[in-house]
Each structure stands twice: as C-alpha cells, then as structure tokens.
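dumping the sequnces here before i forget
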Amino acid sequence: MKKFLKTLIPFDIAKGLSITGTYFAKVFLTANRAKVKQHVVSEYPEVPAPLEPRFRGRVQLILDEAGDPKCVCCNACAKACPTGVITIEGGKKEGRKTRIPTRWDYEMERCVFCGFCVEACSFDAIKLNSQFELAAYDREDFSLGLTGAHNVLEPSPVGKFSYSDEA
Amino acid sequence: MFKHQEMEINMGPQHPSTHGVMRLKLKLDGEVVTECRPMIGYLHRGVEKICENKSFAQGQIWSDRLDYCSAVANNLGWAEACEKLMGITVPRKAQYVRTLLAEFNRLASHLIWLATHALDIGAMTVFLYAFREREDILDINEAYCGSRLTTTAFRIGGIPQELPEGFEQKVRTFLAKFPSCIEEYEGLLNENRIWKKRTIGVGLLSAEDAIALGVTGPVLRGAGVAYDIRKAFPYAAYSEMQFDIPTKPEADTYARYLVRMEEMRQSVRIIQQCMDGLPEGPIMAKIPKLLKSEVNEVYHATEAPKGEIGYYLVGEKGGAAPYRFHVRAPGFMNLQSLPKMVEGSLIADVIASIGTLDVVLGEIDR
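..and the predicted 3d for all of it:
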C-alpha cells in the first residue's frame, strides 16, 4: 500500500523541482535588485573574460630600455620546447655586448602553451602573454617572426577575430 | 512471412553518447544486444613512441593529453614515475600541493562524468549544475599554473612555482560551498524514479569478472572490492591523509554512481587536510639541469579518477629519454568490461553502461 502511494504521489520529482525552483526564484526575484548578481553564466564576448596573472597565452619577447629584444640567442628555449616551435638565429649589433636575434621564428600553430620556454630562459627575455583569442583564417598568420603585422615583440593585433574590443 | 534475423549496427564514432570517437559494433536481436564489440583507435596519436623521442621533462605535456579530463592526475603519475626511475626524493611541501591538486582534479573529473552520464540518461539540470562547480575548479587550476585543462602542473623533482596569492582563499571558499552542491545533485538524482529505473540492475559486473578483466577505480569499488592505490600503495602525501574507500556490493550502475558521489566527499576531506597541514619548505628537489636515467625499469601506478594509471619506463645508461615507455590506461582496461555488461540487455542500457565506465578516448587510443 505504501509503495503504491509512493508511486502515485511523485515526491521524488517534487524534491528535484524544489531544488531547481529555488534557483529560479532566487534569480527571478533578485533580478536588477541584488548588488551581487546571482547569474553564473558570464556574457563572454561582450564582457572580457577575467584572467589570472599566471595565464599562459602566446609567446612574446620582452624588450630592454633601448627597445631591442632582451634575447641573447642562447637557444635554451628552443631546446626546452617539446614541439620545437622556436627557431633563433643570432647576429651582432654595435654597442651591444651580447648577441642580438636576427631571426626569431615562432610557429604558433604547433605551440602547446606549456611555458617550458619561459622556465628555461635565464635572461627574462620571454613571457607568455595573456592573449587567448588567437583564431585566424590563414595558416600564415600563425607564423610569427620579428617583423610584420604579427610579430613576437608585440601582442597580436586584436579585433579582427575578437569581440573584446567591441562595446 | 516474417523472417527473424539478427541485425548488426554501428554505434558511433559520431554518436553523441559514446563520449568521443568510440565505435561499438552491436548485434541486435530486436532490442536486445546479443554481441557488443568496442572498436577503438580513432584518436591514436602514438603518445608512447613520441615520448621515447623527447626528454623526460618534455614528456609531461603528452600526459596532459592522455585523459584530458584529469590532466593533473596524469601529470602526477608521470612525474612520480620519472622520479622513481632516477631516485629523486620530492620535498614534503611539493607532495602536499600535488595531493591537493590531484584531488581537485578528481572532483573535476567526477563532475564531468556526472554531468555527461546524467545527460545521456536524460537529466539535463545536473549537467548544468555540475559544470558550474567544475568551472570553479578550473579557475583554481588557472590560478595555480596558468592553464585550465592541459595543466602541465608539476615538474620532475617538485612543483614549478609556489602557490599564488589568494589561492588559499579560493580553495576555502570552494570547500565551504561544495558539500551542499553534492547534496543538490543527490537531491535531483538519488530518489528520482527515472534515474533509478535507468540505473538499478543495469550494467551488472560481478567482482570476479571485474578482477579478471583488470577493471580498476570506481567501477571495481562499485562491485564491492575495496581496492584503492591511494591506500594500498600510498604515494605523494596520501599516507598522511585520513579518508575512507567507499564501496557498494550491488555492482550495478546505481552503485557506481553512489560510489563516485561518496568519493567526491572524501576528496573534499583530503583537500581540507592538505590545506590545513600545508608544510613550509622548499618546493623543488636538487636535480641536475639535464635529467639522465640509469639502467633501470620502473612501473609506477597512481589512482587517477578513472582507475589505476600506470607508467612503465625503461631507462638506458645516460639516456635523456625513456628507452621504452608504456601507459597502462584505466579507461582501456575498463572498456573491456563493456561487452560483459551489455550483452543480453536492452540497447538503451548500452548508453548507461558507457556512461558508468567513464571512458575518455584520449587515454584509450593514446
């Protein structure tokens, strides 16, 4: 008899509905009123995603006071890289004791963003910046060098494939 | 007039409930499955061979990509296997942080299991709730190492960096909130009649069969065998932690569900202990810059969220890379029990059985 009643009256369903109903009521009643929003969904493309300071984005070279890359072409990062995306060639510049890169190629399409290159660098010449909206239409756009619109010295131009500069 | 014949169909590799690119060859007699053969290999990347050509430190990024839902647990296994090969002792603080992050990863993996398993069976609300909490765990991952999914969280000999500022605050907030969230999931599912009808008595796998097939993890514990590597062969800081191994003797899908829910509670307990007893000290052992192995052969098993993940490494003298590398993936062994579970049952129960095994094809195909 008890089992029959249990089948007839859906207590179990009611329990689940009360949980979802509580959430609905909370959001519905506090809409536009509560100081802290009850929403858990972030409106990502319109509102930029908050990033942690340690976020591992794409590789960027750091410049010194003179505006030259700090890199001394020791190739430690290229050796540490698990997928071999870094190619460096060194040259000389007058008035600079260390070598200066004449070529610093970074194949972003194969990069796994592990950060081993930054750990290997003993000159603080390289960092992983906070860019993650890296989609592009052409494969060539992933080949970053020292010069050109996409280069490893500056953050990539944001806008063409990103929403974060809108609004 | 009517001919009675068996029908052979392919389920997957594009079927949404096969969790990736798994293909099942099913032989059906009406709605009853008479034969089931899992076909794997669609995601084969040759991870073992790649790692044999990379240095020990570099190999870790491929362990991220084995079981991409539990990257930290795989990192832990890889780092500890390499340390065992080279005889490195890890500082105590690093051990604690490793334990802490591995348990967070267990929560994240179990949440994604709960979400997709419930979604397969038809409970969509749980999916949304579970992903809400998983997001917090991924944020903690991001705060610690800068990446959310492919973490590369540890280094051979310790951990790469100290815990960031505000990390403890984040963890404490999560721990205060999470137990009530588990109650929510259970409130939605535990007594739900549809959930119970779809899971109780479905996908039966006896303890004898489970042991014979090499099944580990929650599937084995759901069959009543209290085997957990964290207790049987303690690694990292697990020997100093207080926790229980939940088991259920029913050996069906519902029992495995209950085991995993209880495991999440135990993980919260372990994280709490790690956070309270976090020792001070160095985070990295003294290791040479270029790691070289001796002639040695090790097998190191750790308890990943899905079961026993083992790394088998053979080192040669002065070698910078493993001479031979093999992964004992929990998903691969667990998947073998699928034919045993589904043969003779209805086709709708195949979905529930795949869900309860918690397969991730990244580690099965490797």
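The beta strands of chain A are 59-61, 86-91, 100-107, 126-128, 143-144.
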